[in-house]
Please model this.
Amino acid sequence: MSNSIVFITGANTGLGLEIVKALFRSSKAYTVLLGGRSIENAENAACQVREEYPDSSAIAVPIQVDIEDDESIRTACDYIRSHYARVDVLINNAGASFDQQWNRDRDGGPTMREVWNRSWNVNTTGTHILTYTCAPLLLQSDDPRLLFITSGTSTLAESDNVVLGVNRSPEKGWPKSSLMIPAYRSSKTGMNMMMREWTRILKEDRVKTWCVSPGVLATGLGGDQEMNKRMGAIDPIIGAEFVRDVVEGARDQDVGRVIRRGDIQPW
Ligand SMILES: NC(=O)c1ccc[n+]([C@@H]2O[C@H](COP(=O)([O-])OP(=O)(O)OC[C@H]3O[C@@H](n4cnc5c(N)ncnc54)[C@H](OP(=O)(O)O)[C@@H]3O)[C@@H](O)[C@H]2O)c1
Model:
């Protein structure tokens, strides 16, 4: 049997890289198209994984893809079409959070408009365009799977749960010392609806689609690993193995939902 072709964006670091490693640890054979904004970082990550898992039957192929750049998206998908002719699993993992930069440096950092536009551009618009461009390749698969990595902060239904720090109101008065992550979490809520749209659009093509909420992870997201840890961040390996289990069929009964370990995340 030929390897399953898995294309992962933002796979040179953090959760994405751990997903690659989780696939390398699997008994199933994968060709992992390891997407990175920087081809050098993608190549280094592919070398690292090969060295760490020399006996794996999986293969890692570095691919340059910047999801804020339509030309880069087109070139990546053209490359995949000409070399592999299909994608069995697309994992939209690339994501970014810019609110923290604004909270830290309101004068010298990005403007609020830049923070909001870029958050939506990466997490929602760019992810949608990548998915649209890759869709014909997914339709060439016998068992196509489409995953979007969303966030636990994206749920509307649980946004009044003040046990989570991200839902607590700041002190009375102005200015507020921090607005937390409104642009990031809103863009991920947008991603959740976008996933619903892809579920609808590709229903007759039998593409299995999910948003996967991997938990708060100790990665460099937002440039503040310490804040991630304060929010109770767990080892990204745990999130990565969850994603691999979804790729391998563990949550096929929950297609079209935002899934998290053990349950379904309320809308
Ligand atoms: N960390 C958490 O607690 C957490 C929780 C829930 C969901 N998530 C989601 O998990 C995913 C991975 O995040 P992470 O925690 O692993 O953070 P990370 O370590 O910062 O990794 C993010 C990845 O996305 C890439 N990326 C950013 N902008 C991109 C663009 N325009 N085009 C292509 N790639 C781009 C980054 O590339 P560079 O290396 O070039 O910067 C990096 O590879 C994101 O979607 C994030 O929202 C994270």
Remarks:
- The domain at 4-264 is CATH 3.40.50.720 (Rossmann fold).
- The CA atoms of residues 183 and 219 lie 19 Å apart.
- The chain has a mean pLDDT of 96.
